[in-house]
Design a protein that fits this description.
138 residues, mainly alpha, two-stranded antiparallel ribbon, 6 helices, 71% helix, globular
């Protein structure tokens, strides 16, 4: 790897760390792990996904999702809903409590990004978006 590639890699790692550290601090305040926050975010976005869909999106096994979700159910953050057509299919839904948490954490995340990206111009933001889309295109 040449110098610019190493610099790019380090910049991306530091960017990711800044986001994770801020979100970890926020999730600790509400007694929620980062994995639980990711699941809340997925359930909010996907509207009642199945356990299998969550596992696929997180790239983990369904039993691992169960291990993360079980304490969330006990905390009143999510509910299981069994599909009447197939009882083996389990959907996960937000509770009113977790809907508020998702809204608050999403606002915190948006504030973080706004602060981080306030240091660059609109054209730099547009270029950054273009570059990220190019890098992540399949």
């Amino acid at each position: 790897m040449d110098h610019i590639d190493i610099e790019l890699e380090n910049a991306l790692i530091n960017f990711k760390r800044a986001i994770i550290e801020t979100m970890r601090d926020q999730t600790k305040k509400i007694d929620c792990t980062m994995a639980q926050w990711e699941i809340l975010h997925i359930v909010s976005e996907k509207k009642n996904p199945t356990m299998k869909e969550i596992a696929s999106l997180l790239q983990i096994t369904p039993p691992s999702v169960t291990a993360i979700i079980t304490p969330m159910i006990k905390k009143g953050l999510v509910k299981r809903q069994y599909d009447p057509a197939d009882r083996r299919t389990v959907h996960i839904t937000l509770t009113p409590k977790s809907s508020l948490i998702v809204k608050n954490l999403t606002n915190k995340k948006h504030s973080l990004f706004k602060k981080m990206f306030s240091k660059i111009t609109i054209s730099e933001k547009e270029y950054f978006i273009t570059v990220l889309k190019k890098i992540t295109a399949k």
